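Hi C.,

You asked whether I'd gotten around to modeling the 177-residue construct. I have! Everything is below, sequence then structure, no commentary in between.
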Amino acid sequence: GHTEAGIAELESALALDPDATEVLMHLEWHRLSLCDWDDYDNRAALLRQQLETYAEARDGSLLPPLTPSLFALPSALHRRLGERWAEPTSRSMAALRLPPPPPRPAGRRLRIGYLSADFRNHAMGNLLHGLFACHDRRRFEVFAYSLVDVSDEVTAVIRRGVDPVSYTHLRAHETVL
């Protein structure tokens, strides 16, 4: 609720560390939320350059890839930012060395599992709720695993769209592999 003051603080933080990509990204987002187009082309070029540098860095903090999606950036850069975000998870999963799945018997449906904390009245739940009922049930079994124990009207639509009894709330100690 104090966007102008927040911009001033972000500018101060950026002056202390001009390479702080996350600070620059939030600064630009807030400037645009106030329709501040002054010197926008140069600001956008700086943000893009800084995100490209960040995307190729091998150390430092991770930027959630959703925030850069607010800006008009090349799709290859969006992809690289997402890959950078996923690298720690990919490394930890590679260490598990899971065996390949066994061959699926002929005629058996492929099982698809969705995992989310947003199978509810949330932006993602509202975008996806109709997807689950669209799968060809002759070819696919559809499962939904929720990371939160929230149930509302969107959750009900999702439950109706997955195979019977396949909507599950995972507790903190449970994992799915």
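If it helps when you're writing up: The helical segments are 3-16, 21-33, 40-56, 75-96, 123-128, 153-161.

Thanks,
B.
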